[in-house]
Amino acid sequence: MDWSLSIDKAIPKPLRVILRGVGQVFFCCNAVTGLIFLIALYVGGVTAGLAATVGVISSTVAAYLLGFSEDDIDAGLYGFNGTLVGPCLFLFLENTPILWLYVVLASILSSVVLAALIRILQPYKIPASTSPFVLTCWMFMVAVYSFDVFSRGPVLPAPGIPADIAAASVVTTEFATLTQDAAVTWYTAVTKGIGEVMFADSVIVGILFLVGIAITSLRGALMALFGAIVGVAVPVLLGADKTLIEMGLYAFNPVLTMMAVGWVFLKPSNGTAILALLAGILTVICQAGLANFLAPIGLPTLTFPFVLVMWMFLFAASKSKYWDNTN
Asked: pTM for this structure?
């Protein structure tokens, strides 16, 4: 929206760059949107908000000091991976004072990895997106086994062999009936799915994220909303773990996939909206497969299902006479 862009430009540059970095988690180069996202994170939990703040500042400052592209830095592209690194490590590792140093180092590394991937992927016009965050956090999570001062948190999956879902865990009628309770269950799962993009298990945070996206783009907000709906409906139809669905853990990857394919990287149209829907559905399958693939080493999928599906669709776009990837 024009008014938000005017405010964005009026904000002092250092603060504007930091807030844009937060906004770019959802592809929004808008400091007003970034501010709403950051406020939402603090609403969800002070520690998560502080971790995101430390992460985005560390990754952005590192990019400046290392002499990376100022245009990319100013657009917030070196901030969003750091924004995700902070809350991620505080979620999956034990909360100790030394963990703040870990967040700073990981955020710095995410900027280095991003610069490297930009160089590798640029000839193909494919974005690195959140892959630096994923690769960095995976490495730092595994590294804790070698250090005495760090330890795994209770949320980090324990290494184990993938097993068939227990019948007791499969979705029951709470999603399938036309009742008020079912409507509340859907509402909760969908909004939490949007919030879980930044590891926020909160309805209000998800709503604030959606409002922030809408300030930048109504189409972007619709893609995010439908991505969350896909991330609930498809697992329900396939009989996935109801707890994971209710927490929005199958929804946050389709949210990003549908935004990327249906709004950001392909020319917005009815055709790309349908393509985004297909990509969102496939992201759910990809997430389930990757979760089982990573189970033996005890790592979460994070946003890698989104990255993998987005990359495949964007690479394929250049070979199709129907897909327009000129956006």
From this structure: 0.95
